[in-house]
Each structure stands twice: as C-alpha cells, then as structure tokens.
Amino acid sequence: MGVVKISLNDCLACSGCITSAETVLVEEQSITRFLDGISGKQLCVVTISPQSVCSIAVKRSLSVSQAAKLIASYFISKGVHFVIDSSLGRALCFDETYEELMSKTLRPILVSACPGFVCYAEKSHHGFLLPYLSSVRSPQAIHGALVKDFLSRRFRIPVISIYHAAVMPCFDKKLEAARNDFFVPGTNVRETDCVISTVEVDGLLDSVENIVDVKEEGWLGDFSRGVLYGNEGGTSGGFATAIVTRYVNEHGGEVTEAKVDQNHDVISVLQDGNIVLQVARIYGFRNIQNLVRKMKNGKATYNYIEVMACPAGCGNGGAQIRAESAEKRDQVLKSVEEMYSLIRNSATEEIRKIAAEWSALNPDWKKLLLTEYHVVDRSIVQGLQW
What's the pLDDT score for residue 16? Predict the structure, then answer.
C-alpha cells in the first residue's frame, strides 16, 4: 500500500482529534509556505491578533506598540504591503452579532469565533448545537473577506494576485482557514491563505535589523506605526461585554456581574429589578459540556454566550508563547491579560469608513460577514487521498 496523503481539509472532515494532524498543519501552513506564497503577488496583507502581540511583548519585555512595530517590520522586510490589526474584524463582528441577537428568537446565541468549539459543535451531539451558533464569522474570517473582497475591489487587483496571512494565538485557526466556507465565492481561492502561530512568528523576530517607518495613513498603516485597537472584556475579544455595553447604551439598565467559577462568568442587565438580558463567558471543555447538558434540559437561561475552548480563553491559546513551569505560566498569562487590557484605542471611526467604502464597492458586502455550519458524520472520513 502507498503512503496515505491527508490534506488539511480532511482534518475538518473526519471525526478524529485535531492534535493528530500536527504534521499536516506544519506542512500546509508554515513560515516557509508563507514566504513561498507571497512571492510574485501584487498585494500581500498580514492580519495580526492583539493576543499574539501581547504574548510577544511580554516575552520580549516590550510595550504593545514596540512589539507591533517589531512584528510589522519583519513582515514588511519580507515584501508584505500591509500589516493590520484583527481588532477591526472583531469590531465588525460585534456590530453584526448585536443585530443578530436583537432579531434571533432561538437562544442562547453561542459565539462562533473559536474554531475548536465550532469543530466540537459540528462533530458532537448530532448537530444539536449548530442552530445556536452565531452566523457571524470570526474576526479572522472577516479579515479574509476584507482583504480578498474589499481590498481587491479598492485596489482593482484580482484575488488570485492577493495573498492574505494571519498571525493567531491558536493552532486551530489553521483549521478554520481551510474550511470550504471560507473560499472566495465562485473560486478555489482561500480568503486566508496561511495562518501562522504566535510562537512561530516570535522565533523570527531576532532577525529584524531595522524598525520600518510607515507612511500609510489610517487603518492600513496604524498597526505598523504601533497603534492597536482595543475594548473591554478580556483577551477572548470581549464579545459578552460588547453586547452588554451596547444594549445598556440603547435601552438602559443596571449591570451586575457574578463569577460562577474560574472559567464561567455571568453578566446580567436589570430593569426595575427584572433581568432583561443575561450573557455569560464560558471557557474550557468541562464548562462547555456542562452548558450543553443545561441546554438539552432547557435550563440554560442566557441570551448570549462567549464560548472558548481554552481555559482562560484566547490569551491562553495553544499557540501562545509558553513559560517552562506551571507557576511561571500563570504569571505570563496574567501579564498578557494585563497588557491586553491597556489597549484602548477605539476602532469606531475606522470601521465607519470601511463600512461606507466597502458598501459602495459591493452592496452585498454584509453577506460576506456571515457563514454556515455543517454536521460532520462521525462514521465517515471524507475525501482521503489513498
């Protein structure tokens, strides 16, 4: 029998565990593939998550701004045209998710930004969770559309001549980029061509000799100048907090917060003593399994849930830089969380500009912010190349 060849897409199609595909991930999406991929492209864009920036900043004893400039300088030295903050996609995600919450009757709505949780939902419980998943894409996937649709139209460059990579705190983001849902409509072109982990990028930064001086104005140049966008609510993106904040701004109410346990928080909005909105942050698979049991029993009273597979959320993602001992790991995570909380620049004005220009270029642009989910048959391994 010949050698079995498995593509990255097969990792999403089968019912095995994600960690069994580590070799495939390294071959399919790596720094080497990235450098090969950008060669000859007319436009190369790299999206960077602020969680990755904070992890690198803590490890190298830099400020967030210094770390951003260092990261951007590496990629620009390799031929990348723009390095951008994934928080822009997160801000678009907040807006769409809030509108979804206001219009969708099936509750709770589960945040779908975590690819580990999405894979779990598609492969487990016979699809029970899928109707509850938010139809809004993750920030990474929104950036895929931002680059391959908006920038393609803005600069009049065909998508085949554009390369988009993302630096993320989570290896599962490599799986997300390979989903069939995230190809440019009507083509075989991925919206995100490659995902590189925080730890992979950190290993390259010692080679940076000069910090670049970027002249590009606005959001396309902000990250390279050391400007990141932030919001309250923790290193998993602050989805729950954003929902509550906007609701209270529009409808009023008193906000209370309670900690159920280390990875389970509940935020309630009260009017006249009655709960009118209740959201939760639930991290880690033990808590996720408890949530599923409550949902099946009709005892999950939340309207909206920020769900993440990793305990402590995205700041503790599997692709972040690790300390050697458990004690040091806790301290590093605390430092990453503290640094993340200091990012306070608002993306509101930049998002307004992007939305207006994107709408003018493509009236159907908002459809590109949404996605679908699919039950994965655990008894079938699809599409293997024998």
Answer: 44
